[in-house]
Amino acid sequence: MVIVTVIRLISVPLFLVNWGKDLYGEWLIVTTLLTYFDMSNLGFAQTAANDMTIAVAKGDRESALRVYQSTAVFLFVVILMVFAIALTLPPLLPLGRWMNLSLIGAADLRLIIIMLAGSMALSFFMWLLMAGYRCEGKYHRGLLFVNLFVIIDFAGTVAFLITGFGTVYVALAMFVARTLVCTIMVLDIKRVAPWIKLGYSNASRREIRRMLSPSLSFMSYPVSMAVINQGAVLAIGTIVNPAAVVLFTAMRTLTNMVLRVFELVNQAIYPEISMAWGVGNNELLKRLHRTSCQASLWIGAAAIAFLAVLGRWIFEAWTGGKVEFDATLLYGLLAIMAVRAVWQTSMVLPSAINRHQRIAVSYLVLSMLGLAGFVTLLKMIDLHWALLALGALEVAMIAVVLPTSLKLSSDKLSVFTCQVLQPPNPVAVARMFLKKIPDAA
């Protein structure tokens, strides 16, 4: 998490110095568009990770392998479709004009799309391999390889930027980094879990059909985030200008440091919740949910307070004064993060046991409504007021997520609220991060 956060913070001034605001803004718009098509492997890898972890907790590796190979076959078909789209559609559509691009030419745009499609395809299998690590209790080992990809990708990006190469080569760096790391992970998983084998002998159409509903629900998460996050970027680029995209993206990158706190907690409890559900330990499930939400709320609050006080200094030092600081935008985005702290970690419980379908549909609908409100306020007033639509989305998600998680863990809202609002027990939080059973805080 630290590596990803540091690299994201370094990347913004690096791109600004070497490319300038206009080219960097266009790059963000192009990569934003591709995010719409990166459906997080259509949710199948996440569903597979949950099912495999629950199956291994019950001692049923045969079922886990059937899930793994069925998912691999499905993803291979999806990858073929992705490349067919990336190779045929860009030459036929005026994408450059639609995205208001003036510095990235049509030929380069086509090459970038192909490279990013290749990277997306490799990420599908990277996260399927992560399912193997997770079910064997080696999720931290898989995360090391994910961080290795981030480092290699960043090193290649730096090399191409400082030597004057353009956008196509930066996209190439991402593709090469993922190819290398995926190869290493395939070789390593054979040592960690020899029973996990890529192939199709254990694949089952029935298994794929069974996984379809939770997988499509998982797919709606990245689609929803793309609608509201990348949709906002595209709206700003179209209604305002690429320079405003740089300001919004830079400010959001800074405030997203709070999300890294939530991700740290979520990664710690995700496998534990799946295993607790698999063995029917409802008391542990309840304690995991309470302690994790408590940790996210309080650690997140500390991170928000830190950025509220030192955000201006960090932003100006970080961007080197090339992007004008906007205090109202910073405080608005931090307020959104504060509301998200209430439901972000709670959503892990239904997600980790594949009981997230209603939440996923609600999130997708609310994201569309949020984006519509954002665009309306952006056109009628300005960016600051448009943030109200994003805040309303976060408030609505509390009402959707929390009742579901409390029902699944057989918990009461009053008891849950009392514990979460208390300062957390550092020992309980430490045990949670060390993958041990947390005591009640």
**What is the radius of gyration computed over CA atoms, rounded to a whole number of angstroms?**
22 Å
Report the major sheet.
none
Structural class: mainly alpha
Q: What proportion of the residues form beta strands (DSSP E)?
A: under 5%
Please tell me the total number of domains. 2
Write a structural description:
There is one protein chain. The protein has 441 residues and is mainly α. It has 2 domains: 1-203, no CATH class; 212-436, no CATH class. The chain is 81% helix and 0% strand. The chain is built from 17 helices and no strands. Helix 1 crosses helix 6 (139-162), helix 9 (242-255) packs across helix 11 and helix 11 (282-319) packs antiparallel against helix 12 (327-343). The radius of gyration is 22 Å and the shape is globular. Mean pLDDT is 81; it is low at 436-441.
Please outline what is shown here.
The protein has 441 residues and is an all-alpha fold.
Name a few traits of the molecule.
mainly alpha, 81% helix, 441 residues, single chain, 0% strand
Question: Strands, helices and their partners?
Answer:
Layout: H1 2-35, H2 44-57, H3 61-88, H4 95-98, H5 106-135, H6 139-162, H7 167-192, H8 205-239, H9 242-255, H10 257-278, H11 282-319, H12 327-343, H13 348-352, H14 357-380, H15 383-408, H16 413-420, H17 426-433
Helix pairs in contact: 1-6, 1-8, 1-9, 2-3, 2-5, 2-8, 2-10, 3-5, 5-6, 5-7, 6-7, 8-9, 8-14, 9-11, 9-12, 10-11, 11-12, 12-15, 14-15
